[in-house]
Every structure is written in structure tokens, then in C-alpha cells.
Amino acid sequence: AKRNANEPEFMQAVKEVAETVIPFIEENKKYQNKMLLERMVEPERVIMFRVTWIDDAGKTQVNRGYRIQMNSAIGPYKGGIRFHPSVNLSILKFLAFEQTFKNSLTTLPMGGGKGGADFDPKGKSDNEIMKFCQSFMTELSKHIGADTDVPAGDIGVGGREVGYMFGQYKRLRNEFTGVLTGKGITFGGSLIRPEATGYGDVYFAQSMLATKGDSFTGKTVVVSGSGNVAQYATQKATQLGGKVVTMSDSSGYIYDADGIDAEKLAYIMEIKNVNYGRISDYITKYPNATFVAGKRPWEVKCDVALPCATQNELNEEEAKTLVANGCICVAEGANMPSTPEAMHVFQNAKILFAPGKASNAGGVATSGLEMSQNSLRLSWTSEEVDERLKGIMANIHAACVKYGKDSTGYIDYVKGANIAGFVKVADAMLAQGIV
Ligand code: NDP
Predict the structure, then answer these.
(1) Which positions fall inside the Glutamate/phenylalanine/leucine/valine/L-tryptophan dehydrogenase C-terminal domain (predicted)?
(2) Which of 25, 50, 333, 384 is deepest in the core (most CB within 10 A)?
(3) Helix 89-105, helix 362-376: angle, nearest 10
(4) Within 6 Å (CB) of ligand 1, which residues are found?
């Protein structure tokens, strides 16, 4: 703990895992005396580097780039790249640590990693984004590869940025390989990858509801965020018969009592993915909706909540409000959106609660499928990928039930996901010796 004392997000993520995994280790002799958890919290490698680029005004800019290569026991490092001004070592280590468990849960051979830069893409021109991505990849290319480390997108890194980074990697290495996932369909991307995290989150919530004999039909759903994960979670929840009444960004949330249907969602996608604009623009086209500035959507009454924006975006008070308003299911689309206190509120109320490492694993799982397709040099159909995604989410749900269900029938998805994720990585580490 001392070594990481100034890394609050990382400490938060480790504490959550330790609380459930340490008792499990104490009950299972096989995992004792090998410092397994101690080894897992120490990244195999951390790379930090200068990223310099020239903006449109001709001014030289300097950012800091990172890649955390956390754990390669079960496969090449795998995890997204985040471009956001808040990016620092603590946030990326928390994400890389969570990623190790998540990737293990998918059952695919992927280790854990994460990277990014403190670069703010907001307000940057397309040319500036390309310049930044090229400079970032110029250094990163020395440390990654299809069999070593395979990054993907995350906050601030979507299809456009992955494309620019892939182009630069190819130019530098003279290799066309599956070194990044989330690529465009014309150059090795997988169908359904853009949809996968949001869809997977909703498939997982569907399995959770099914344990109570329930479904999305007729449910009021509150979604936070309006980026990649939020958009496709909204789409799938709507397709399954739910009514999504909110979406948000860092400036506030929109509330649409009639529900954000397919046509309205298409408008949000235009605002966010084409114009790189603000969620508040929604009310200019749909004046019946309201925009609530500077607030988060958890005060809105709902049956199901899908937090899909960022870490620590749902606190204890907000969790209490959700429970008091009758929310029965929270499935995290983002990574660690609920604070530890919020998580305890959901668990004490015994409502269905899934941590991101289980419920948002559909994205990286489909990235794993993209890697397989690249290696085979072929492309599967949307239906084929979607079927595999559904199967993987169902398996993750089953693993959570296996390790998380108590004698009263309550399913602790946090415990279930942590132990199931731990077992596979720990077994591989034991077999590979003290390295
Ligand atoms: P995007 O960049 O597409 O969208 C992020 C959304 O969250 C935007 O609406 C953004 O608003 C909002 N947001 C970001 N930072 C903050 C903040 N500090 N406060 C309030 N709102 C914020 O990212 P993704 O949709 O890809 O990622 C969302 C979450 O899902 C992250 O936690 C990510 O790690 C996680 N995730 C993503 C996966 C993927 O496949 N993309 C896979 C698994 C997890 P604004 O535009 O105002 O910044």
C-alpha cells in the first residue's frame, strides 16, 4: 500500500478486489504463500513518454503518454487507450488492474493493460487529432505488437483515433497486423465491435433480471454518458423493450420522458460522433425534453440504471436516491462508476448490482474476437459476432453466480467477478513459476 499511497483510484480498485479475494485465498491452500495478489498489483512494466506535436497555430505542444503492461499471464497485454486531461498514473493503473480480471472473465487469452495521455481532444481540429495520434504512436509502437500488447479505444479514443494510430504503426513497422482493435471495417475491424460494450452491458443486465424472472420489457432506464458505451447501451435497452429517459455528458443530462427512441438516438450519435458537440444540443431538436445543467441523472426515477460515462460518477447519496426511487438493477457500463460507498448501498439493499469488470467485458471480448479474425485473416458476420458476444456475457454471468451466490440465494456479482477473474490468472501464474 505504501508504494502506491499517492494513487487513490488504483488503491480503490485494489481494495475492492482484495476484500473478496483475500478470504478466498485464505480458504484455498493452493493460492497461499506465492504472493499472488502482491504480484498482481505490481505492473510488469510501466512506460511513460513525452508526446510532442504542433497545433494548428504552429505552436509546439507537450503531453505525457503512458502504457501500463499489467499482467501477461494468460495472453498478450490488452486494454484501451484513454485521451482525457484527467489521465494520470493512478487512473491508468486502476484501469489496467481491472482489465486483468475482466479479460480473464471473458475466457479469451488476453492479459491486462491500459494506456493513454493527458491530451484533451475537446475542441481540437481533425488535423490536430491526427498529429497527436501519430506522435503518440511513434513512441508506443516500440512497445506493442500483435503478440505482445494490443491496445484499443476508451474515453476520447474512438474509430477515428484508432485509425490514425494504426496508420502510423503500419508506416513505422511496415507490417499489417492486428496490433490495435476497434479498427475500421475496411482494414481489419470486427463487425459489432463499436456496439459491443453497450450491448454486452445490456445482455448482462438481461441475465441479472432473469434471475428474478424479470426482463427489460416496460422498464424505465437511466443511462449516463453519451459516448460509445452509452449510445449502444441505449440502443439495445430500447430494442429489448425498455424506455431510456436520460443521457448525459460532463456538462449535464437530458431528460426525455417519452424515451430516447431510435430516431432520437441517431440524432445524439450525430451530435457526438459527427459534430463532436454537447448533449444539450438535443433539446433544440426535441424541445419536450429538458436539459439539467451540471447534474448527473441519478435523481431520475427508474427501474434500471446503466452508468456509462466514467469512474466515480455515482456516489453514496445518489445510490440511496436510486434505491429509494425503486431502482432494482444497476449494471455498470463504465469502469468503476460507482464509488465504494455507493456499491455498498446497492449491496446492502440487496438489489441487483454488477461491477464494470463483469458487465462491460463485452467490448474487450469482441476485441478478442477481432484479434482472432485478424490472425485467421477473415471476417465473421454481424450475427456470428453478436451470437458469440451473447454467449460470452452469459458465461461471465454464470461465473459470477458460481463464485458469488450465497446460501440465501443473493448473488454478490462483485465477489463472483473478482474470484472468477482471479482464479484463471492465478493458476496461470502458478504454472509459470515465480516471474
Ligand atoms: P467516450 O469518450 O465515447 O464517452 C465518454 C462519455 O463520458 C462522454 O459522454 C463524456 O462526456 C463522459 N465523461 C467522460 N469523462 C467524464 C467526466 N470526468 N465527468 C463526466 N462525464 C464524463 O468513452 P466510452 O463510451 O468509450 O467510455 C465510457 C466508459 O466506459 C469509460 O469508463 C470506459 O473506460 C468504459 N469502457 C469503455 C469500453 C469501450 O469499448 N469503449 C469498454 C469497457 C469500458 P464529455 O463528452 O463531456 O467528455
Answers:
(1) 190-433
(2) 333
(3) 70
(4) 153-156, 158, 197, 225-230, 249-251, 308-310, 313, 333-335, 360, 363
Instruction: For residue 385, give the H/E element and its range.
Output: helix 382-404
What pairs with residue 151 in β-bridges? 79
Q: Tell me what percent of the chain is helix, strand and coil, each rounded to the nearest 5.
A: 50, 15, 35
Task: Answer whether residue 1 shows pLDDT above 80.
Answer: no
Kindly report, residue by residue over 258-271, the tens digit of the pLDDT.
999 999 999 999 99
Query: Cα–Cα distance between 197 and 146 in angstroms, integer?
Result: 22
CATH of 2-175, one of 3.40.50.10860, 3.30.590.20, 3.30.1050.10, 3.40.50.150: 3.40.50.10860
**What Cα–Cα distance (Å) separates residue 43 from each residue in 167, 182, 364, 435?**
28, 24, 20, 12
Closest C-alpha to 369, from 391, 353, 351: 391
- The ipTM of this complex is 0.98
Residue with cell 449491496: 347
5 pLDDT above the threshold of 90: no
pTM, to two decimals = 0.96
Enclosing H/E stretch for 224: strand 220-224
- Asked: is 194-354 a CATH 2.40.50.140 domain? The reply is no
Which DSSP symbol is given to 338?
Answer: B
Nearest residue (CA) to ligand 1, atom 29: 334
The grid cell for 434 is 515465480
CA nearest ligand 1 atom 46, residue: 249
Region of 182 on the Ramachandran plot (φ > 0 left; ψ -120 to 50 alpha; else beta): left
